[in-house]
Every structure is written in C-alpha cells, then in structure tokens.
Backbone:
C-alpha cells in the first residue's frame, strides 16, 4: 500500500540555519504530495503542495520539489526562525479521482533556538 | 465559524464507556474526513463523507467505531466500549469538494483510563 517515510526528529537548529527534512514515499499511480505544519496548540495547516513530477511547492520561505525518480519530497528552508518551531508532516493523496484522503508520515519536530 | 470546530477539546473516559466526538466543518464544505493521531505519530485516516454519504470507512479500526453525518454538515464520531488503545487525538478535516485543500480542526484528545 501507499506510505510516507520522514526523517526522525527532533531536529534542533540555530536561528538562520539551513533546514532540510527528508521525505520519501511509496505509491501506485501519481499522487499529490503535501507538507503540513502543526504549531504548538494549533491544528494542522497546509504549508505547501505539489501535484505532479518536477513541480515545486513553496510558501513562507519553505520549498519542496516533487521528485518522481527518487520518490522524494524533501522540505527545505534557507534560513529558519524561532517561529518555525513546530511539527512537520509529509503526506500524499492518491491521484485524480480520489477523495483527497491523506496518508501521513510520522512527523518531524523542529526546534529552532535563538 | 471561520474554521473547523471540534468538541470537546479534551475527553477522559473510563474503559468501557461510550464517547461521542463532534465536528463542525466549514460551512458549505462537502467533504469531511476523520483521522486518528496516536502520540508521536502522524494522523491515520478513519473515514470520509461526501455530504451525508459515508463513502469510505476503510480506516475504522473496529466495529466499535461509528461515524455519521446525517444532514451533510455536522459529523459525530462515536466510540463504543472504549479501550485504552483508543487513546489518541481525533482530527476532523473538511474541504470544499473532492481533491481540494483540507482544513483541519484542533482535534479532540481522548484519554481512556
């Protein structure tokens, strides 16, 4: 079945450091890929998405590129801030015609220190 | 309201008790999803509604779990005879229609003691 694997956390960085959170997936067909973020005490929020191979999703300085050849969707940010501290979830949704049901990775906690 | 609202935010149940968790989706949203998130894990799909029709319940872990959305708006997830392994955060999400962005509520944290 379809699945998503994320790098284990927690990831601890200093402010202004470069961030990479790895995500790989297994899927049949052509899934859409997502990054969700969960800030402390808040619900899951969509951070960015990509719907086909080679698409790059970007938002709030974060970006991720849909790589079909490596089945990956790694999240990157050039310079993290303390306010980026949160749990990040990689997810996939099966291709067109699907309900939009999401399959999530286990989450990666990011802690950014001043 | 402006977002997906879930109630209660926290629920403590004694083992064997029945519980009901409520989700108020964003007004006009056709699709509604329930997910279960165990501690330290990602959310796992439970069930999906399109309007009042439950089109996918493949993720419900046992027949103790039951969900309904009788008028195509508010949804209730019911768990009968709760067990300790049911302890988790239950998330509700809604979207305008199939395959559009899903908006999540803050969840209900269920603790079974």
Residues:
């Amino acid at each position: 079945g379809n699945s998503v694997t994320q790098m284990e956390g927690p990831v601890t960085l200093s402010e202004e450091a470069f961030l990479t959170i790895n995500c790989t997936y297994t899927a049949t067909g052509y899934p859409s890929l997502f990054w969700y973020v969960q800030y402390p005490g808040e619900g899951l929020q969509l951070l960015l998405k990509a719907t086909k191979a080679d698409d790059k999703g970007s938002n709030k300085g974060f970006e991720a590129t849909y790589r079909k050849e490596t089945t990956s969707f790694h999240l990157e940010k050039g310079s993290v801030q303390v306010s980026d501290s949160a749990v990040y979830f990689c997810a996939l949704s099966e291709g067109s015609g699907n309900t939009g049901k999401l399959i999530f990775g286990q989450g990666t906690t990011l802690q950014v220190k001043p | 309201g402006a977002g997906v609202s879930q109630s209660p935010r926290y629920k403590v149940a004694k083992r064997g008790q029945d519980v009901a968790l409520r989700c108020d989706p964003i007004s006009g949203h056709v699709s509604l999803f329930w997910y279960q998130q165990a501690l330290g894990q990602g959310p796992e799909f439970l069930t999906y509604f399109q309007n009042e029709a439950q089109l996918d319940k493949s993720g419900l872990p046992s027949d103790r779990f039951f969900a309904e959305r009788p008028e195509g708006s508010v949804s209730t997830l019911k768990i009968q005879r709760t067990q300790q392994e049911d302890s988790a955060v239950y998330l509700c999400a809604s979207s305008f229609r199939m395959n559009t962005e899903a908006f999540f509520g803050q969840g209900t944290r269920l603790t079974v003691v």
Observations:
- The longest strand of chain A covers residues 86-93.
- Chain A touches chain B at residues 4, 32, 36, 41-46, 49, 89, 91, 93, 96, 98-107 (CB under 8 Å).
- Residues 33 and 92 of chain A are 4 Å apart (CA to CA).
